[in-house]
Amino acid sequence: MHHEQQPSMMKHHPAAPDHGNHHPGSGPGSGPMCSMDMTFNWNTENVCIVFKSWRISSYTQLFLSALFIFCFSYGAEYLKYYVGVLNQRLTGSLTRRTRIQASLWYGLQYTISILLMLIYMTYNGYLIAAVLLGGMLGHFHWSQSPAIQLPPCH
Predict the structure, then answer these.
(1) Which residues cross the membrane (predicted)?
(2) Position 4 in a domain
(3) pLDDT tens digits for 67-90?
(4) Cβ-based neighbours of 75, under 8 Å, separated by 6 or more
(5) Which among 24, 32, 36 has a CA at the least distance from the CA of 58?
(6) In 31-150, which residue ranges form alpha helices assigned H by DSSP?
(7) Closest to 28 measured CA to CA, from 36, 38, 18
(8) CB neighbours (10 Å) of residue 91?
(9) Which three-class secondary structure state does DSSP give residue 124?
(10) Is 149 within a domain?
(11) Count of Cβ atoms closer than 10 Å to residue 49 Cβ
């Protein structure tokens, strides 16, 4: 059913000035913004990855970002391997210095895991594939046993 407004009901009011607290570049016409999808998607534009400044706006940027994420995820698996080897060497010497060193490495692993989780939470299929494939290949190359040593995000 279609309703038309009668001319007497159509009133034009000048736009009231906006006195809201907007950040520079966040108003209308300020350019592309990050998409914030809460469902799985295959978007190739306006996908922000972790930071607003890391915004995909072309297929080339998508490819380079996915390649970087693949390498980052692969590197996370190498780091797990390296920390495992380091911990085996330090098993007998639990001095304060070695405990601090082990805690710093653990903190780095934890930070990387959280960053990978945040990338996964873009729900973008291309980026999820990059995280998974990089982690799987890294696990294949660097794992010392078939069992997973650490859960991805604790």
Answers:
(1) 62-83, 103-120
(2) no
(3) 999 999 999 999 999 988 888 887
(4) 112, 134, 138
(5) 32
(6) 59-90, 96-120, 125-142
(7) 18
(8) 8
(9) strand
(10) no
(11) 22
Evaluate whether residue 99 is within a structural domain: yes
114-153 pLDDT, tens digit per residue, is 999 999 999 999 999 999 999 999 999 998 766 555 555 5
Per the structure, the complete domain to which residue 100 belongs is given by 34-142
- Whether 62 is in a domain gets the answer yes
Q: Measured between alpha carbons, how far is residue 60 from residues 27, 63, 66, 153 in Å?
A: 28, 5, 10, 29
Structural tokens at position 46: 């306006």
| Cα gap 13→27, rounded to integer Å | 21
How far apart (Å, rounded) are the C-alpha atoms in residues 22 and 29?
A: 13
Q: What's the pTM value of the predicted model, to 2 decimals?
A: 0.73
